[in-house]
Amino acid sequence: MIDDPADTAVTPHTDGQRDGAPDDGTPAQEGVREVIARLYADGRAYAAAEAEKQKLRASIIGAGIRNVAIFGIVALMLAFATIVALLVGLTIALAQLVAPLWATLIVVGGGLLMVLILLFAAKGAITRMKKAIAP
């Protein structure tokens, strides 16, 4: 982000005189209308700069969320592939000890048993949450 202050929209100009005073020595008086116009222009410039800053922040946050989502999905896919490889390896290892059909049934049964245990744990967590937030 840029922390440099932005230029104002309207900058008063001087004609080489000290403090904008005219040549005849009388002090220059800026009218209320000019002051309000300059204040309005400066306010618009500030609002535009702030809007640009917020757009930049939003785009940075959006890019970060997109990257996190991509990395998370890839990590989940790799975890799933690793679990599949583990189950295939278990089946092959058990096939050395028992028949291949029995090895497959043992691995599938163990996997389904783990699924049931995890589902019951999730159900228990939901039940505890409902009790905690009940009036």
Could you describe the 3D structure shown?
With 135 residues, the chain is mostly helical. 74% of the residues lie in helices and 0% in strands. The protein is built from 2 helices and no strands. Helix 1 (32-97) runs antiparallel to helix 2 (100-133). The relative contact order is 0.05.
State the main characteristics.
mainly alpha, 135 residues
SSE blueprint and pairings:
Elements: H1 32-97, H2 100-133
Helix pairs in contact: 1-2
Biggest sheet layout: none
Mean pLDDT score: 85
Q: Structural class of the helix and strand makeup? A: mainly alpha
**% residues in beta strands:** under 5%
DSSP, total strands: 0
Order of helices and strands: HH
Distance between the termini: 46 Å
What's the helix count? 2
Show unreliable segments: none
Helix content: over 70%
Tell me the overall shape: elongated
Cα radius of gyration in angstroms: 36 Å
Short characterization:
The protein has 135 residues and is mostly helical. It has helices at 32-97, 100-133.
